[in-house]
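Can anyone check this?
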Amino acid sequence: MTRPADPLAGARPAPDDPAPEGTDRPSLRVPSRLDPTAWRAARSLGGAWGRHAAVGGHSWWTPLRWVLAMTLLTLLLGFAQKAPCATGYWDGSKQYTHFCYSDVVPLWSDERLDVGGVPYRDTTVEYPVLTGAFMWLTADLTRGVHVLDSHWSELVIFGALTALLLSLSGLVVAGATAQTARGRPYDAAIFALSPLLVFHAFSNWDLLAMALASAALWAWSRDRPVAAGVFIGLGTAAKLYPIFLLVPLLVLAMRTRRYAPALWAGAAAATAWLTVNLPIAMAYHDGWWAFYKFSTDRPAERSSAWAVLKTLADSGSNPSDSVYWVPPGAAVALAVVAGILVVVWIGLSAPRKPRLAQLAFLAVLAFLLTTKVWSPQYSLWLVPLLALARPRWRLALVWQFVEIAVWFVTLTLLLGLDPAQSAHGIGYGWLMLLIGIRDALLLSLAALIVRDIWRPERDVVRAGGVDDPGGGVFDGAHDYFSRDSGARDGHNTGEPDTSSSGLRASNLS
């Protein structure tokens, strides 16, 4: 099949090394040929086009397997980063001085997993049902492994098994993201090589929900709305944020008038969530409800805009008092709804329908910016979404390194709250400064994505004339809200045909 000319060809210096002998040089828009940051990094590793980059070759090392290998390497680094804290002997506040804190270690005993407690029945759990089940399953496996080999403590085994199972979830995130980015599998390397993944892969159980959210996007890209809805519902039963993937589905359904798949996905999501939650809610209502009550009553987290604004409003008083402030629930709910409505407005007012991943990133970011709880590891949710929404490396890396700085300063602040270590702590003002920089970078990324929505020719994913590789039924669909006559059927004026069937055939060739 003849491939369309790459409109970005020649935009960057060509790599020094030629394509391998016996292979063609397709116009595959690989990051190492077009993204300046990836191109410079590839030069240090031998060049932008190597023998494993051939699309039609016979090498076992396909792009997907390379992405999975890179993810595994990053996860191993993440395990090594948490290793100093694995034993639970945190004398001298080691969890802060070594920056290796993980919720997995203290919750082994706090949630009574160490004595065989069943979440929701015997103890309250500060997470939704599916995460609680994940913790209980891992604890049960821990006791079985400990019987076979008692050399290691149960806590160490629990941490290792948790890391193993979460690593499998991380591989699902990488693989699903690579498969969703049709024709651009190496975009998933933004997640696979994420520096933020090194520090937060095992800080909490977030990778479980991320795997389900990524699987939902993959299923939708394959025209499987019911499966996508099931994954969204299960993801919401692990963490709340996957529910916001329904927002872009609704917006794009309105723009294309393809309501049935979105409704099927919504119904499947509700059914999956109820299937997981109802039995626990009926059997152990108090334990099940404790998570939702805790979410309502907990104070604004230090990394949230609510805590920062309250501290600034209380200037002159003790900053620590503001950190434990509980903002009115109605105010938080209104802020979240307002943020989501802004995303809906962006999606409906754009001259051409946005890509699904662009709106998904904006919706989840709107939730993080407006909710009162932004634990540092929550930022990891955005990385695979960013890889699909705006697969450019430079600003993505800058933002992630600032997130790591936020993590370091947060732990240093907590170190100072220990009376024995107060001289080694840091003031909340420094954390507020970094949070401001972090939020500014994320808003810059959001602004660039909105620019790509308004000016699709600037979108690197659409550069070859494609519409929405991960859009599923919305890919190539008629856009009833379009103000661009050349894009009414999902096409760029003068670009090759990007109908759903045509695009998929070219991407698989």
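Reply from J.R.: I decoded it. The chain has one domain: 87-500.
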